[in-house]
């Protein structure tokens, strides 16, 4: 289980996170919602060690993440699919996946398993990543993250700018990973898409987790969305 | 035929072609080619850091000079034979690469360029300052008797050419293997997206340091071979000019390609050689050609070949 207690983080002198306290359980899709600039992506980056927490504690499966370098975090079986995908564009699809596999010494079986989730990538293994469509790039970003066989997956707006069929595919894969026992922390702007698959939702406001509720309670209480998101 | 087999075949073909060229070319050009082959090792080392890892160093002359002086000073002052002198040269290159890498990697981007440049300048000035031993700009001329390896006289044109070719071929295949290995892929991942590579769990700093050490060692090996085969080591080889050369060779030949350094090195060598036959303002002609090539083939010669004809080109 991922546990954040009173986490604070800053970019240089600018404090962005003030009090982020939440947890994500195995087999759960936990969605982090908030307005632009509320601290959603910073929360994910802080978990990944890309932004250093200057207060509070972070732990995953009872292992403290505080003080670990960014490259040590994935060794805790934590995968991150960033906004904008962050692919190695000059490399082919196969090479992108290999780079994901190599770091944890995973082999062909993991690769096959990952490609089973995204059969479209199988057809484009030799294609350079930069020549893929937006949806395919997102699939590749997720496929590469899954190469480490993660127990926790952080997804930052995975459906941003995608056509409906691709959104459906990403949703299906997310649900499948959850059903296989992974904990998923999802940041998403498309509230309708989120609420139908999330188990719990945390609202973040100006770097503070304001409330954590079940997804069904949000669906039954639209006023909550208006209060935290202005929709 | 898969990509690895094609790559192996291409590298073999290039090596075979270079063997053949010795008998085809007049002596003047085979002498030039020996020089190009040795300098291409330097360019390959530079390419590993710049073309594959994305680190732009302006101080590689320090590594080249470390190998060059490591060998020359050992032969000249310690009176050892070629093998231990070569080992000293390689050890010196590794030691300097480790130190420079460790310090320079505390910086990134422009600061990295400046720091490497400053270290190289410090090395250059040290070579001049220790003129009593290095003979400064005048340099050390190695005796013919010192340039003998296992009873093979390396001052002869044929032995010199084939020794240069042997070392070049070994490095050529080693680099081809390296860039297709997990290490090479990780370096490309760092070049493409450093933060992403870190997020995948790669220890980026360690990999960059390893890249600098490998690159510096290859550059040092090239410097040592240059001194051994051409019998001279001078402070000029530690100057900023020799830090800029490998950058130009790699840019012209094609950064991030295994064959690009050789192409770029040969192209620039002959560009200067030919243009100097027509005018004393040969650098102007060379400069115009370089600008045109950069404008119309920004990925270098091998980049054009890769784009138009051989997409699998490593």
Describe the overall structure.
The complex is a heterodimer of chains A (231) and B (314). Chain A has 231 residues and is an alpha/beta fold. In chain A, 34% of the residues lie in helices and 27% in strands. Chain A contains nine helices and ten strands. In chain A, strands 6-7-8-3-9-10 form a six-stranded mixed sheet, with helices on both faces. The model of chain A has no long low-confidence stretch (mean pLDDT 88). Chain B is mainly alpha-helical and 314 residues long. Chain B has one domain (3-239). In chain B, a hairpin with a 2-residue loop joins strand 2 and strand 3 (152-153). In chain B, helix 2 (27-52) runs parallel beside helix 7 and helix 12 runs antiparallel to helix 13 (282-296). The radius of gyration of chain B is 19 Å and the shape is globular. Classes of the chains: A alpha/beta (231), B mainly alpha (314). At the A-B interface, helix 2 of A face helix 8 and helix 9 of B.
Short description, anyone?
By secondary structure, chain A is an alpha/beta fold. Chain A is 34% helix and 27% strand. In chain A, strand 9 and strand 10 form a beta hairpin.
- The shape of chain A, in one word, is globular
Number of domains of chain B: 1
Oligomer: heterodimer
Order of H and E elements of chain A: EEEHEEEHHHHEHEHEEHH
Widest sheet, order of strands of chain B? 1-4
Number of strands of chain B: 4
Task: Provide the succession of SSEs of chain B.
Answer: HHHHHHEEEHHHHEHHHH
Strand runs of chain A, count: 10
Q: Which percent range fits the helix content of chain B?
A: over 70%
Q: Low-confidence parts of chain B lasting 5 or more residues at pLDDT below 50?
A: none
What fraction of the residues of chain B are assigned to beta strands by DSSP?
Answer: under 5%
Q: Characterize the biggest β-sheet of chain A.
A: 6 strands, mixed
Q: Any low-confidence stretches of chain A, pLDDT <50, length ≥5?
A: none
Mean pLDDT across every amino acid position of chain A:
88
Distance between the termini of chain B: 15 Å
Structural class of chain A: alpha/beta
**Terminus-to-terminus distance of chain A:** 31 Å
Tell me the β content of chain A. 25-35%
């Amino acid at each position: 289980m991922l546990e954040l207690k009173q986490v604070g983080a800053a970019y240089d002198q600018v404090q962005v996170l003030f009090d982020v306290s939440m947890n994500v359980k195995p087999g759960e899709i936990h969605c982090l919602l908030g307005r632009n600039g509320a601290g959603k992506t910073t929360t994910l980056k802080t978990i990944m060690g890309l932004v250093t927490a200057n207060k509070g504690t972070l732990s995953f499966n009872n292992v403290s993440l505080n003080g670990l370098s960014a490259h040590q975090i994935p060794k805790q079986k934590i995968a991150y699919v960033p906004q904008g995908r962050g692919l190695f564009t000059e490399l082919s699809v196969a090479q992108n996946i290999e780079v994901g596999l190599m770091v944890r010494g995973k082999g062909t079986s993991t690769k096959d398993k990952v490609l089973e989730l995204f059969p479209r990538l199988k057809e484009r293994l030799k294609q350079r990543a930069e020549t893929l469509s937006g949806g395919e790039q997102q699939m590749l970003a997720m496929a590469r993250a899954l190469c480490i066989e993660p127990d926790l997956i952080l997804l930052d707006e995975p459906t941003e700018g995608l056509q409906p069929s691709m959104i459906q595919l990403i949703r299906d894969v997310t649900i499948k990973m959850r059903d296989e026992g992974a904990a998923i922390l999802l940041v998403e702007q498309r509230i309708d898409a989120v609420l139908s698959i999330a188990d719990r939702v945390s609202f973040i406001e100006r770097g503070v987790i304001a409330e954590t509720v079940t997804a069904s309670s949000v669906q039954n209480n639209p006023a909550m969305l208006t209060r935290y998101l202005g929709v | 035929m898969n990509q690895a087999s094609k790559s192996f075949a291409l590298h073999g073909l290039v090596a075979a072609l270079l063997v053949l060229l010795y008998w085809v070319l007049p002596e003047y050009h085979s002498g030039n080619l020996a020089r190009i082959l040795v300098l291409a090792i330097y360019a390959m080392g530079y390419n590993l850091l710049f073309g594959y890892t994305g680190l732009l160093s302006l101080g590689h002359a320090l590594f080249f000079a470390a190998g060059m002086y490591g060998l020359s000073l050992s032969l000249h002052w310690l009176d050892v034979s070629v093998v231990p002198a070569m080992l000293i040269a390689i050890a010196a290159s590794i030691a300097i690469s480790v130190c420079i890498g460790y310090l320079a990697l505390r910086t990134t981007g422009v600061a990295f360029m400046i720091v490497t440049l400053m270290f190289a300048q410090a090395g250059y000035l040290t070579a001049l300052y220790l003129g009593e031993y290095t003979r400064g700009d005048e340099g050390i001329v190695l005796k013919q008797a010192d340039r003998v390896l296992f009873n093979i006289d390396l001052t002869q044109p044929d032995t010199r050419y084939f020794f240069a070719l042997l070392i070049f071929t070994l490095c050529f295949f080693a680099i081809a293997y390296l860039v297709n290995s997990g290490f090479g892929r990780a370096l490309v991942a760092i070049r493409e997206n450093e933060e992403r590579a870190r997020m995948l769990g790669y220890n980026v700093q360690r990999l960059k340091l390893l890249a600098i050490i490998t690159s510096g060692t290859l550059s040092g090996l090239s410097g040592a071979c240059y001194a051994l085969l051409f019998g001279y080591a001078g402070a000029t080889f530690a100057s900023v000019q020799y830090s800029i050369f490998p950058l130009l060779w790699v840019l012209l030949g094609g950064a991030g390609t295994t064959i690009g350094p050789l192409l770029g090195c040969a192209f620039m060598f002959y560009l200067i050689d030919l243009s100097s036959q027509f005018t004393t303002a040969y650098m102007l002609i060379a400069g115009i050609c370089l600008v045109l090539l950069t404008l119309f083939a920004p990925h270098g010669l091998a980049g054009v070949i890769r784009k138009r004809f051989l997409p699998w080109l490593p």
